[in-house]
Amino acid sequence: MQKVFGLGFQIKDDILSEIGDEKVLGKPVGNDREKNKVTFVTKYGLEKAKEILNETTDKAISKLDRFRRKSRIFERISIIY
Q: Is the distance from CB of 40 to CB of 15 less than 8 angstroms?
């Protein structure tokens, strides 16, 4: 589960490095490109990186939903006892 969340965080960071607001981010926008870093944006392009982020976010939410369903079972058991 951590891999999916970490991947989503990295993709979002790569996107914000291209199109974010420096004042909000607290770091320069475009610095990854200037350093010739390979990012999701440089590898796939901005629009595809956004698609991958959306897919990754959906996977992460799905994993959380499974965890929530399991936790509800334990909540019900604890109510019984």
A: yes
Between helix 46-80 and helix 2-19 the angle, nearest 10°, is 140
Report the Cα–Cα distance between both ends of the chain, in Å, rounded. Answer: 30
- Do the Cβ atoms of 75 and 67 come closer than 8 Å? no
The enclosing H or E element of 78 equals helix 46-80
Measure the CA–CA gap between 60 and 12, rounded to whole angstroms: 14
pLDDT tens across 15-68, in order? 999 999 889 888 889 888 899 999 999 999 999 999 999 999 999 888 887 777
* Cα three-residue angle 9-52-42, rounded to 5 degrees: 80
Structure tokens at 29: 């926008």
